[in-house]
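User: Hey, my collaborator sent me this sequence without any context and asked if I could get a structure. I don't really work with proteins. Can you help?
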Amino acid sequence: MPVEKRTEQELDRPTPYGDTFDGLLTSASAKVLSSYKALFLVGDLSQQWTPAFPQNLDAALESGTVVYMQARHAGQFERNFLAALLRKHSGRIYIDDTRGHAILPKRLDEVHERWAPFHLRGSPVRYGINRTDTGWLVMIANPAGVTKHPATVATPPKPAQVDPTKVATVSLEPRVGCKKFSELLSGRSLTTSDLGALRVDPGATIFVSCDY
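Assistant: No problem. I've predicted the 3D structure and written it out in structure-token form, which is a compact way to encode the shape of the chain:
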């Protein structure tokens, strides 16, 4: 598609899982790995393998972390070490033949359903979830209805075109124990009813704060 006709939604696509995953290197410490409920091994680990990674992964599993890996990743562990891991951490290591997928969609669904602190339903939106000192912060962005016109040497910048009909309505379903919800920028308190029908205008972003 010509660059001058690209819309915000085509450049910034919503996903069912939001921006809720972190990328880590195999040099991550046992403490860092253990801070996650689930870990996916992806990519060519042989290019970034570190001597401490197997033991750090073992420590993460010991703390309760669940590990998902591809069959090719399993082959990169020393055979006896992997066998010992599987015996020691039965039920917390999943080895899949992904066949073209970096991560199987069913595993993403599984992790999202089991551990996501919030579920969003309704219009397709971009969202991210982050911890705060007092609870959680949920960012919800609506890229729909925004068409940008990139400037070039020969073309001066033009204002973005916004279709006011492309309003997003989403339901935010908390799965953690929050006592207070508010819209961060305005400070407005949000009721359970408000959370069931959050409005996000085209090109707009809202931030919902959840406090314990």
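In plain terms: The two ends are 46 Å apart (CA to CA). You can pass these tokens on to your collaborator as they are.
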